């Protein structure tokens, strides 16, 4: 069935005004000022978007789809994510990652979960590896994983400046990045290295050593959690001004914010005020990952679970509370990750792109409708499609 979205104001993610959008199968067929339905054509679903903003489906490029955690022993392993945990947040594309636990959480499990989520209706890719170096892969090689396995587009999340990391030296990270870079070049993928940044005052030192001592460009890395404390955030500004990508994490707790974590909307606003290009900034949720709390001795004292829904909540707050332009706020979860990760069919409302679309109420910017690959997942704030075990 064809679908026609009419009367909406479209951000593609730049504002292009009132447009109609014709969805043909899982693609965007046409975007035009007015698309009329022929009188004798009955097999078309018309979605009235009057009073709505129409934006690209959101991309969450850091989600623990198999669950994460375990820092408080086996009982604290967080559960696998379910489909509607993702779609109710307007997310239509996710990148799955492993984290602290690369032993009981495996790459084969991650890949199988990604394929399962795709069968349920959304798009899913993964990175190979976890916190540790050497990286545990599927084929035995980072480069081979990226070249030979369609769903693997990069490596990570590799932990740096964290007491849970494998304490690699810069040469270890350089070799890993080289393998990812060549794997990406040979397969047409991004080959990014997703870096988990911890609380250490060393911050980005290892990445700078790689960049200064090798030919690997700064854009090969995607450091995340860059808003976790004031000193890392200050370094993030300088890193981004040098051309690096920076990713801010939206899942948080009141305690983390009280201890100095920078709210995402504030982080984006400050970056822009310091001359950083909006194109170098992304947000991710760390969804289904653990949000562990440690004391001064590094001992586990508590844990909460990240939520994919926090991704758009942070964007909405950035617009309503921090005064961000809608197009800037939307870019950090649509076109920016699509461009950085070379997801060529994602992140835009343009002809021949994937039909991943979200309708927002203009009054309060709440999510009304979510369409993934041309299929209506949420309509009028009601879930239409649930996961297999929901």
UniProtKB/TrEMBL annotation:
InterPro entries per UniProt = Amidohydro-rel, Amidohydro_3, Metal-dep_hydrolase_composite, Metal_Hydrolase, Metallo-dep_Hydrolases_sf, Pept_M38_dipep
Name the family: Belongs to the peptidase M38 family.
Name residues in a coiled coil: none
Name of this protein? Isoaspartyl dipeptidase
Q: Which UniProt keywords apply?
A: Hydrolase, Metal-binding, Metalloprotease, Protease, Zinc
Cofactor(s) it depends on: Zn(2+)
Q: Which residues form the signal peptide?
A: none
* SUPFAM superfamilies, A to Z: Composite domain of metallo-dependent hydrolases, Metallo-dependent hydrolases
- Sites where the protein binds Zn(2+) 1: 62, 64, 286
